[in-house]
Hints:
Blueprint: H1 3-23, H2 37-40, E1 49-56, E2 59-66, E3 83-88, E4 92-93, H3 96-108, E5 113-115, H4 117-120, H5 125-128, E6 135-141, E7 146-154, E8 160-165, E9 171-175, H6 176-184, E10 206-211, E11 214-221, E12 224-227, E13 233-234, H7 237-249, E14 254-255, E15 272-277, E16 283-294, E17 308-315, E18 322-325, H8 327-332, H9 336-339, E19 352-359, E20 362-369, E21 380-385, E22 389-390, H10 393-405, E23 410-413, E24 428-434, E25 437-438, E26 442-447, E27 453-458, E28 463-468, H11 469-473, E29 486-489, E30 495-502, E31 507-514, E32 517-522, E33 526-528, H12 530-541, E34 542-544, E35 547-550, E36 566-572, E37 577-584, E38 592-596, E39 602-605, H13 609-614
Antiparallel strand pairs: 1-2, 1-6, 2-3, 3-4, 5-9, 6-7, 7-8, 8-9, 10-11, 10-15, 11-12, 12-13, 14-18, 15-16, 16-17, 17-18, 19-20, 19-24, 20-21, 21-22, 23-28, 24-25, 24-26, 26-27, 27-28, 29-34, 30-31, 30-36, 31-32, 32-33, 35-39, 36-37, 37-38, 38-39
Amino acid sequence: xxxxxxxxxxxxxxxxxxxxxxxxxxxxxxxxxxxxxxxxxxxxxxxxxxxxxxxxxxxxxxxxxxxxxxxxxxxxxxxxxxxxxxxxxxxxxxxxxxxxxxxxxxxxxxxxxxxxxxxxxxxxxxxxxxxxxxxxxxxxxxxxxxxxxxxxxxxxxxxxxxxxxxxxxxxxxxxxxxxxxxxxxxxxxxxxxxxxxxxxxxxxxxxxxxxxxxxxxxxxxxxxxxxxxxxxxxxxxxxxxxxxxxxxxxxxxxxxxxxxxxxxxxxxxxxxxxxxxxxxxxxxxxxxxxxxxxxxxxxxxxxxxxxxxxxxxxxxxxxxxxxxxxxxxxxxxxxxxxxxxxxxxxxxxxxxxxxxxxxxxxxxxxxxxxxxxxxxxxxxxxxxxxxxxxxxxxxxxxxxxxxxxxxxxxxxxxxxxxxxxxxxxxxxxxxxxxxxxxxxxxxxxxxxxxxxxxxxxxxxxxxxxxxxxxxxxxxxxxxxxxxxxxxxxxxxxxxxxxxxxxxxxxxxxxxxxxxxxxxxxxxxxxxxxxxxxxxxxxxxxxxxxxxxxxxxxxxxxxxxxxxxxxxxxxxxxxxxxxxxxxxxxxxxxxxxxxxxxxxxxxxxxxxxxxxxxxxxxxxxxxxxxxxxxxxxxxxx
Length: 636
């Protein structure tokens, strides 16, 4: 064995001997071994600490306590917490919740082992790493007293760290987790306030978005917004509110260290500059620079997770560079058309009392009034043109709702000619009256080349808008699709018995046996799943058609109703029975013809889904299987 190997073995033997003398001598436990960090450092208690300085692998940072106003009223159930300010290496606002939790863990952690001077002397500082400590914790209390905890190297088992209070000779051992998590590897960014921009959306009076070759300025007008310019254009308040909400909720992901990530990261030529005008509160703002792809932390994500886009930003008047989620750029990169108010007709469907429209030479007029001959009944929609009939409430309400929700997809301002848009002689015109006042009429022109959009314009306006062509195509013009199309309307709470007879004679009956409890009676008696029964009840509660076919059929065979596909009979709690006949279109179409027993009128459903809802077998009502529980979970 050569000399170097011999010396190495002797050193290793010496370390093990010192370790065994300290750790394994079998002496009575030291009563000081259960003391907390703050006690060992000779301070009164955690609440007395006013300043904390931590030296770790990434440098030194200092936290300064700002005592809370004890007279302040906290939120319900929330304690009054002290605030903390970061004073070094940068002066910054701290995340008080995170810092209070961190400081509590830091100061109240118990020492793992505590060895008095005579035992500590058996392990030289050169072996414990306390001759040249690279980590430390410095505490200052509210009386100005300062104490320092020096952290040395790891114990031979590498499950702890040696430590010593400066000025004392006792040897302390803290767990590896405590030192690594709270001192050695603690990042200042974990304790900083992650708020990107501190402002209230309600305070914003002006929003400017500057891009390399253009800019957009938005100004608050009452409860709404306008795009500044000549002329001013109404802006989409919901889009702007969403942008402001995103700015207030975006959190800082990372504080960029200029030593490890030098450069301007595109912030000397920002892709977007955001300026928030806050009235008498001044301005706030943000620069958006380059993006970068960042792989997620393998320990906190699945192996197949995709890289995440992060965005370099810088706050107005600040030199610090920050990283946020890359989606912020998409939220703030807008064209003027993105921000314009896209409302085609601003109406309140519930206040509408009249709807009239013409299209391709056909006219429709609907009014909300009491039914003919029944002046004391509530007003409902009545068809006045092209015939006088009770109107279908759902069709009218859906039309008004669609018109209210209709949004422009493109704008053509001040066109030289209306001819290319088919608006010299409009194809159609719509007018809605609310509480006796007619809203500006909407003129309907031609379509785009691909037929996807239609051109419309407010009467007297100067802007042509594009809207989805399906809105125009779906306008009902025929009285048989505008008149009352309710085949039957039943109260689902009164359902007591349901009989479904198929064309082949098969009969299925369901019986209510309690609140929301049903059973199959025929063909065999068994429990029925209430959720599956509810689907049938829903289909029979409001039987609504899409077209009124005829007042009375001379031959039911023409509609397949001589031998219905399904005959559904509902017995109600008052003993009344209602029967609905539904038949597949004999011509092979998707629709179904409908008729109510005791009534001559025949209706048609365009999609025939009612047949699917009512063509049932007893097996369709078997209770759903209980969801399987994960291992170790108790049953529900």
